[in-house]
Amino acid sequence: MLRCVKIALSQNGTAWQDKLSTIDLPRSPGPDRPAAHGATTRRRGGFPIRASGAPLVDGGTVEMIRSVAALKTLLVGVIGHVDHGKTALVRALTGVETDRLKEERARGVSIVPGFALLTSGQGEIDLVDLPGHERFVRAMISGATGMRAVLLAVDAHEGIKPQTVEHLEIASLIGVRRGVLALTKADLATPETVAARAAEIAAAAARAGIEAGPVIATSTVTGDGLPELAAALSALLAETEPGRDDGFPYLPVDRVFSRPGFGTVVTGTLRRGPLAVGDTVEIAPGGRTATVRGLQIHGRAVERAEPGRRTAVALRGIDLDQIARGQALSLPGQLAPSPWLDVAITAAASLSDALAGGTACRLLFGTTEVEARLRLLDRDALEPGASTRAQLHLGEPVAVPAREPFVLRLDSPSVTVAGGRILDPASRRRRRHDPRVMADLAALAAGGPAAAITVRLGQLGAAGAPLIDLARIAGVAPDWARQVLSEGGARAIGDRFVGAAAFEALRTGTLAALAHHHRDYPMEHGIALERLSRALALPEAVTGAVLRDLAAAGAVAQAAALWRRAEFDPARNESEAARRLEQVFRRAGLNPPDEAEAIGRDVRRREALTYLVGAGTVIRAVDRVQRRAVLFHREAVDSAKARLIDAFPTARTAETGFLAREAGATLGISRKFSIPLLEHLDATGFTRRAGDRRVIVALETGRAGPDAGRRGAQDGASHS
To answer: Is the pTM of this model over 0.85?
Structure first.
């Protein structure tokens, strides 16, 4: 029997083991314990683990525990030349046969990545047995782009071979910097040969930038070196820093199949964030959505899978022919297909010639492979081992998160030529030899999510960007991007965010525009939002947000629909023309002159009228039917209100209200003036239409009194 320890979480979220809660599980089928013919295991809450002796998820042999809590894990790629004993080494360490295909077992050559679980006191290590034959390097890369460390296997007799070098170079190009070095088949070599090979391996790893301890000589026949190798891997796990959690799952699909009663199942290496049963995921590219019905990690049904683990996902709502290898599961809306990628790229050091701009190649990331053309932005060719920022123009759009590693290969000759990481997964064609473009890409390459958001907001300025676009450039979930934006002082304006620096520039520009308006129109009480937006060449939503922010800070003031600087007082600029024009309307009472008659073509009188209307001294009343306006002095309107209350003291109901002609007769004015006046009184709440009649609201509510007319006049001034 195999003793499995149940994992629980402490209050601070770290894993701990409770030795009092252990579960005895039957030992899984292995070389010395074959599975019963046709055996199938099922557990409540999961889906089939074994069918005819095969686990649902690659390599898993333990039958089931209900969940696997967050614990320290590491994904290690087992790399090396073909027939150098990688598969035998994994089998000896874990008891798992990673060559699962019939063809692989018949030929004794790994064709696709195989997966096995190695447990230690430090946690769990996912071993990925990567194909070593040159014809299967593409398959090797599909399993390699998720690894964080390598186990390099080299035959003690043959030594370093072409695929040894290529595998090391691929690991270096995608950013792997840690590993364990193993000499295999050491029992077939002399001590002198073992020592020489060990020196060669250490030097090759150092050239690739791989930090590793002493080379470990092993033999799967005698068992020599295997305990030391397991200990070295365990130490590698212990030294591993927690992986970045970007808040969203990203699982490149490497296998698709179905299980009776459970529908479509996909497998892959989960990256970026956790995935839980019940989550909704999007298949990208393509846009279809599905629900996670079940999860397994190495044959164990779990409620939640953490990033960095080999994971099998049962999906509800998607058919077998609607998802394929090369697509990925992710958060709905997180990934957007694009034919242009901005990248940080390094040319393979093994190249004999410089890598020319415009080179046609194959882009490989995750489990995706697509045609691409390299577009260098700051030079015409990239020397072997050199690095820069560039673009890839793709033969078809791809959906990939920012910061994902990639590899470029040629079709003929079939060699790896470059690798790196995605900077902007939804780019566009950029200008070459542009210092600003190169500076922005350098900032993206050097920084993390916060730096990426800062760069993008700086590029867009006052226009800002939607949250999802910022989340994509940062390679994090929208909620995480929102937190970064908040900490950085960005401002939300509608469905867009504007950076703190750009928003401050908008504040300064808006105050300057208001000052300019006050200087040019000293008698206007302010400027309308739409007019100010046109002056600033900004959307009204942006201008409004800036004005509200300035108002909250006491820098600007609003009067009705007009905005002004807080210190600006148009009354100080009242002119003699305004005083004379006011007297014209005061004397005219309820029979005022037409606007054109009052001001003619005199610009100063036009400015004076604008000032008087803005101050509420003159009220513009509109006849909506005739579509014309009449200008009344506010004292005339105040007087009209008082006279209507006196003339119609019972106008508190629809039955006792007054007609428009009765109001005109009472006030001694024609319909030309009475209708606009009554429309104004309705709009300001002094009267209320009730069919053909009008009710005086103050009488209706019992608020009528000696100062009702004065209150109404104040209301009218405010409304105007």
So the answer is: no
